[in-house]
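Lab meeting, action items carried over

1. Structure of the two-component assembly. Owner: GW. Status: complete.
Input record:
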Amino acid sequence: MSLRGRAAIVGIGEVPTKRVHEGRTMVGLCAEAAELAIKDSGLRKEDINGLVTDGVTPPPGLAEYIGIQPNFATGVTMQGASGATATMVATAAINGGICHTALVVMGNARTDRPDPGRGLSGASIRSEWEEPYGMAPGANTGYGLIYQRHMHEYGTTEEQLAKMAADQRFNAQKNENAVFHGQPASKEDILNSRYINEPIKLLESVMPCDGAAALIITTPERAKTLKNKPAYILGTGLKQGEANIWQRDRITETPAVESVRRALEMSGYSPGDIEFAEFYDCYTILAAVCIEDAGLVEKGEIGPFYESTDTTYKGTFPINTDGGQLSGGQPGLAGGFRHVIEGARQVMGKAGPRQVPNSDLCLVNG
Amino acid sequence: MASAYDKPLPVPSNPTLTKPFWEATRKEELLLPRCNTCSALFFYPREVCPKCPSMDLGWQKASGLGKVYSYTKVKQAAHPSFQSADGHIYAIIQLNEGMKIPSNIVGIDADDVKIDMDVVAVFEKVTDEVTLVKFKPI
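Predicted assembly:
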């Protein structure tokens, strides 16, 4: 039993990521992205009978707002991994015959709800064991700890990871939806940005933004009748690790070791076959360790890899071709979801000025 | 009289569960949750043993010894009381018993903190009710 080739992305929609979308709500931005994706697919709204969200936007209210009454609806609450997980869940639901065509959508409007990344949490593991020692907002502290440990174990340098952020910023200059479109930044600019959580610098961490993204996914049979070149799901894999970084045995290794292995096994491909990659990048260091754990480079070799490899859309191994979240901005959980959207966009041949030359096989890490 | 402590105090999600831990720190003891069925030591405290399904749990006094597993200098803090231009060191300590615990490193210049440095628990009374566990180099 496998999901290989059992569903295809046939439409994508993205509301440009901005610091703030004045006068807009999360549900409204989601509805706009949904309409864009439906229009892109060439389907009618009535053809959609599945809905998967990030759970932050509850599916019942969103379905009503958009004006659909699906036969399958759920919200996955998997934090940053929600976008990739939602796509997996939609693929499984289609393969299981629960629905045939699903809308996957998520978005964020910061003025519309309290920003969960700031200040203190409610009573939690974090509030009892971490906050009394002075954490940074959001996930900064945990990734600062991983960064420091990776430098210690493997000799990784800040300059090497700044190259990642610079390559992505270059890509964002060809993406009008990116929050840093029109704002180039060099490796030196990244290195010279201030420390927020040393060794993490400001330009190595995501900017919270507003925006939304959506995709339409359907059966291979239906995909063949539609106007777009389909982006088939060839494999999926998930591995849940410890939620709190300090609960892990080794903080420089991620569950991507197993999730990617499972996805590749289902697909029949190996890391060397992958033509380009879209990797979750709330911070440079997270994309770095996940790229290693995916087997795209040897463990500990991410620094030398970035030193010697052009990962821009024009390069020998393109990564985060839309600028990623670092240069695209992070509209809540739609930030991680955009990695799926951009992977599909490239495979569908819709990436315009940043279309990568070889775009048939993409590895997405959500 | 010292000015009132303005930093975040521990807010337990289950105050009943972790009451013995915070009572012990007031007596300058570091306790670790222990499973009376499978003998596993773990941290943070849970209602169910993470190794076996037992709910027969107790506490064991820790050595207080460990190493700096990793650290980061927080320059942009979540809570304003922690905000300073120089930043402060937030660390994970790997205790000799094996598990990790978040804390601060004290008694050393921030720039001198190193991974794998040997440390020992110290107890910092911040209010009449709360004594935090911090670590200093040996």
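2. GW to write a short summary for the group page. Key points so far: The beta strands of chain A are 8-18, 50-53, 72-75, 101-108, 195-198, 200-201, 210-218, 231-232, 276-279, 362-365. The first helix of chain A runs from residue 26 to 41.
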